[in-house]
Amino acid sequence: MPTMNTTNRETATEHDSLECAVTTYATTRLTYDSVNALRKQSDTLPGALGNSVLRHCDEQTLTALVAVKDAISRFETPPESFKDWGVVFSTRYLGRTAFAQALNKFAVDGPWNVSVQVVPNRSLHSPASMLGLALGCHGPCVGVGGGLDGEPDAWLTATSLLDQQSLPGLWLVFSGWEPDERIDIEGTPLTDTSCTTLVLALQPASCANPVARLRIVYDQFAPVALEVPAKVTAMTLFENFVASGNDQHLTAMLGGGLRAEMNWSNAVTSTIPLLRPIPSSNIKKAA
Amino acid sequence: MNKQDSVCITGVGLTSSIGHGYEEFASNLLSGVSGIERVSAFEVTDHPSQIASLIGQIPCPEGFDETEFRSRLRIEQCGIWCAESALRDAGWQKRPEGLRIGLVLGLGAEWMQSWEMDYRRGGRRAFDPTEEPAGLTTKLHRLLDLRGPQLTISAACASGNWALSQGRRWLELGWVDICLAGACDIGVTPLSLAGFGNLRALSRKNQAPHAALRPFDKDRDGMVLGEGGAIFVLEKTSKAMERGARRYANVSGFGATSDAHHMVIPCPEPQQGIAAMKLALADAQIAPGDIDYINAHATGTPVGDICEAKILQSVLGESVKDVPISSTKALTGHLLSAAAAIEAVACLVALERQVTPPTVNLEDPDPDCAMLNHVRNEPQPRPVDVTVSNSFGFGGNNTCLVLKKAA
User: Which residue does chain A place closest to B187, by CA atoms?
Assistant: First the structure.
């Protein structure tokens, strides 16, 4: 890894670090209508889960299936299968639409009309499990985060799992609505919004020809607490990063004195903080 | 990793229907006290299942403002109580500046539950995210002024095992000095009781709450929802010994796999459940014959218990006749995301008290589960040095956790 040039990082004490390779990636942004149209297009998505299954999927899961399909097509050296892979999936406010509909139905009709599909398909683990089901992954499939502040959770979990469990690969997925959904009691959006996904395939650091390398390090000068980020999703942050041209070194502060470094080429010209340290005076107030 | 560098549990904080602290929980667990009752917190007359395992009022930790504490959602109260009492139990109520304490919390449906609670209070957060607050893990991290990394993780009902595994990993990596790890779930709400009830996953023995949840029994008809949580303080053994801390157990092994079969139904072919157990035993460097007690996932559903029996039979081989197995859900209910965490406490009780907790209501074992060495209805005193806890979940999540007696 290239060294960093800020004063803090030159003097940082680095403990154990985790390193892995990014072997493909993709981003997807879909409107409310287009993501819901996917429910009748099972044969176009990985795993051909069937329209009856997609009917109950959360929109963030559907968007991720599109992104993963795109990412798979971009592999330099595609794996033979994803059988032993895992999934780490960070969502934002999963299931708002379906849950609002369930609340409304319950209020009108009582308990017997509450759908049996809400809990299995809208819990934090659900998108990871569904993606694992589509790709036939028997490695660990977990959901992380859940709110605006959950993206560092995904970096930490994915890299530590890849290092720990001898997995051949792992899908790291970030999803969320942008802007976040405002809906009526029927679950219909009241404003234009898009469902976004950023998906990265992570493989062990020894993997040849990666598109990027990712390392998580402990840095005594990195912030321990993080400000809840702006309501843009990981995908937009990533697209901005890519659009920034020559700046190919991405740094994300993960809290707890940890930072992620992602190197997309040999050039190291700047850092782009995805998350900023929160002033200590604001921490207790926010809590 | 040598013995000195192993990761151990030095503090426990919990709330459950059978106790709000370790000693009370242990006593009731071994006395067969059931926490399952008819739900009275909301109207259940039209629900197919009308019973649950409820925790009542969550204690306010010492030093916290009672009024402010009560103004919080119950899931927050649960997290604060468990984390704060775990730290106190470990002797970390006063902490040196700069101590890096991490936080890993298993939470499966945090937002849906908080939207429902908010809605019942007349709020609109489910429809309008403008005022959406930080998540529970972030709130807890700030409230306790923790200095390490934080993580919310979910593998459905296996989330608690995942939290302990990730906490152990962070200690191994040197990212934290101490890690709080566990899970909370306040899942007994009108919508979840209706959703699980309509799924036919819940027992309908509404007239006999204490006898309703019957893991491995021929007469079982489903699980009973429960609520609560457990959070543990994890530390390196060498550091814990240095400061003379009580060591409940070592977190010695973990394995996880996925079925990739169905979002609800367990895979009839148990290979991935078997693989998860084998990974955990290998991680802990133990053989099946070394196990002194298994806390089964066994939720009391007709399909799930038989699947787990097959897994246990395959992994244990000839030891299946000898290794004591029970499901403590019959007393605590199924705590969903927090199930694995509360069942890890049951394993600590087994290690500490040298006794295996029973499966109550196991009067007539299902012939398909009869090959197991069930601890039926009464605890059995015996040497317990190694415990195993299985937790499986929706989405085909399979996990297994090995806890060893701290030497």
Answer: A119
Which tens digits make up the pLDDT trace of B157-214?
A: 999 999 999 999 999 988 899 999 999 999 999 999 999 999 999 999 999 999 999 9
Taking contacts as CB-CB distances below 8 angstroms, the residues of chain B near A144 are: 151-154
Q: Is the ipTM value over 0.90, yes or no? A: yes
Taking the CA of residue A124 and the nearest CA in chain B, the distance in Å comes to 5
Residues 6+ apart with CB under 8 A from B250: B6, B7, B8, B9, B237, B403, B404, B405, B406
CA distance B109 to A93: 10
Element (H, E) at A66: helix A59-73
C-alpha B266/C-alpha B308 separation (Å) is: 9
Q: Which two tokens stand for residue B361?
A: 């209501």
Which residues lie across from A146 on neighbouring strands?
A92
- Say if the Cβ atoms of A157 and B262 lie within 8 Å: no
The residue behind tokens 């033979």 is A80
Residues of chain A falling short of pLDDT 50: 1-15, 266-287
Q: Which residue has the tokens 């109580």?
A: B81
Q: Which pLDDT score is estimated for A228?
A: 61
Q: Tokens standing for B326?
A: 């029970």
DSSP string over B154-213:
EBTBTHHHHHHHHHHHHHHHTS-SEEEEEEEEE--SHHHHHHHHHTT-B---TT-HHHH-
**CATH number for the domain running over B7-249:** 3.40.47.10
Nearest to B219 by CA among B33, B369, B12, B56: B369
Do the beta carbons of residue A82 and residue A69 sit within 8 Å?
Answer: no
Q: Chain A residues with CB inside 8 Å of B199's CB?
A: 116, 119-120
How many angstroms separate the CA of residue B185 from the nearest CA in chain A?
12
Point out which residues pair with B397 in neighbouring strands: B258, B393
Domain B252-404 has CATH 2.40.30.170: no
Q: Measuring CA to CA, how many Å separate A269 from each of A265, B27, B215, B268? A: 10, 62, 60, 54
Partner residue opposite A121 with nearest CB, options B259, B263, B393: B263
Residue-wise pLDDT for B97-151, tens only, equals 889 999 999 999 999 999 999 999 899 999 998 878 889 999 999 999 998 999 9
Contacts A221 to B, Cβ<8 Å: none
Report CB contact under 8 Å: A139, B257: yes
Q: Which of B297, B369, B374, B400 is catalytic?
A: B297
Asked if the Cβ–Cβ distance from B142 to A106 is below 8 Å, we say no
Tell the residue number behind the tokens 């609109």, with chain if given.
Answer: B124
Q: Taking the CB of residue A71, how many other CB atoms lie within 10 A of it?
A: 24
Q: Catalytic: B262? A: no
Distance CA B311, CA B298 (A): 12
Give whole-number Cα distances, B226 to B37, B51, B52, B164, B184, in Å. Answer: 10, 9, 6, 21, 11
pLDDT at B341: 98
**Domains of chain A, with CATH numbers?**
7-17+213-286 (no CATH), 21-209 (3.40.47.10)
Cα–Cα distance measured from residue A233 to residue A148, given in angstroms and rounded to the nearest whole number: 8
Half-sphere exposure of B209 (CA within 13 A, CB side): 19
- CB proximity A242 to B under 8 Å: no
Displacement of CA B287 from its chain's centroid (Å): 24
**This prediction's pTM:** 0.94
CA distance B15 to B130: 32
Chain B positions in Cβ-Cβ contact with residue A142 (cut-off 8 Å): 153-155, 162, 397
Q: Which of B334, B347, B369, B374 is catalytic?
A: B334
Considering chain B, tell me which residue range(s) the CATH 3.40.47.10 domain(s) occupy.
7-249, 252-404
d(CA B281, CA B400): 9
- Cβ distance of B132 and A148 shorter than 8 Å: yes
